[in-house]
Design brief:
By secondary structure, this protein is an all-beta fold. The chain has a domain at about 5-40. The protein is about 0% helix and about 45% strand. A hairpin with a 2-residue loop joins strand 3 and strand 4 (about 35-40). The protein is elongated, with a radius of gyration of 15 Å. The two termini are about 25 Å apart.
Length: about 60
């Protein structure tokens, strides 16, 4: 189910779209501001990894 939220920010349209892209991720949203588009995704595992005492984060 696609949802969109639109805001006026400094005279430009700021658009947040969820449920349209990256359906294999646990969570994803598409952010648009002017000519800039950013895809944000998050994935997780149901089982914790042994020996990890920190929250691993990777950015591509």
């Amino acid at each position: 189910m696609e949802k969109q939220f639109q805001y006026d920010l400094a005279g430009r349209k700021f658009l947040v779209t969820i449920g349209k892209v990256a359906e294999q991720a646990n969570g994803a949203c598409l952010l648009q501001y002017g000519d800039t588009v950013v895809l944000v995704t998050a994935t997780s595992s149901k089982e914790p990894r042994e020996g990890i005492d920190f929250f691993p984060l990777s950015v591509d």
